[in-house]
Amino acid sequence: MLKTLVPGLIAIVLSAALAPAAPILDGYIGVGEYSVSVQDNYVYGASDETGMDYFNTGLDIDSAHVDADVSKLYLGVSTKDTFMPSGSPASYTGQTALNVAFYETMPDLTASPPDSPLWYANLILSAPTVVEQAILVQYPGGSKVTIDLLSGLKRVNGGLPTSDSSIPDMFKYWVGEGLEISLGMNLMVVDPTTAPYFVMQLDDLGGWDDDQMVGQMPEPATVGLLAIGAVFLLRRRRMA
User: Fold this and answer.
1) Per-residue buried b or exposed e for 56-70, using 16+ beta carbons within 10 Å of the residue's own CB
2) In sequence order, what are the residues at sequence separation of 6 or more whose Cβ sits closer than 8 angstroms to the Cβ of residue 60?
3) Is 134:122 a contact under the CB 8 Å cutoff?
């Protein structure tokens, strides 16, 4: 009886917690599209960003966005001006890098060696429709799993790569006024919903200062993500 009730209960939780529907993925992030939206109010302890190279540009993070459903994880970044995918005027390579790292506890950015995230994603763009690099790195149980989202190659602890042709289809991105990313839940070897703290960084790969923000998912907004976590764990148990 319990086995038949659990999926139904999870479905009820999901339908209630994840309304409205998944974000509209087009590079334009509207109010209320994501379950979690966190404003950038942290810059190396400073009270504002005045005087920084990236201030009020398309490399100045305005807010970070996170959402999920049973099949996909969604990440978004809004910038103060239209997102700049080709770096800044001082970029050495004409590229922009987005780094997003998720932590189970509040990270100490001054620690040496730095705190280890549960997982992180790295994207390097050179134009609105050109991604030069897309990497997903996860740390399950002390191991390191690196997935190249463009080639489909996967490495565990730096070993020989294995290839999975389905991986590139599980990664999508959209560039507009902001940047949005979707990752298939099948890419995750750790539960992505157990990391409520994150660091997001935009880097012009050049002479400008990087813009970095630290965020925490607010409790009421994570109900839907926790429900996804329950589904994730059930799926993992069935696969085990």
Assistant:
1) ebbbbbbbbbbbbbe
2) 49, 52, 54, 79, 80, 81, 202, 211
3) yes
Cα–Cα distances in Å, from 114 out to 45, 111, 171, 203?
17, 5, 28, 18
Token output for 150:
């463009």
Residue with tokens 């799926």: 235
Hey, what are 99's tokens? 């780094």
Beta bridge partners of 148: 135
Radius of gyration for the chain, computed over Cα atoms and rounded to the nearest angstrom:
18
Sign of CA dihedral 232, 239, 184, 101: positive
Q: What is the pLDDT of residues 105-119, one digit of tens each?
A: 988 878 888 889 999
Cα gap 100→83, rounded to integer Å: 16
Q: Phi/psi at 153 (nearest 5 deg)?
A: -85, 140
d(CA 116, CA 131): 26
Beta carbons of 171 and 147 less than 8 angstroms apart: no
pLDDT digits (tens, 9 = 90+) for 6-34: 434 333 333 334 445 789 999 999 999 99
Q: Which residue type occupies 145?
A: V
Task: Taking each helix axis as running N to C, give the angle between helix 2-17 and helix 223-239, from 0 to 180 degrees, rounded to the nearest 10.
Answer: 150
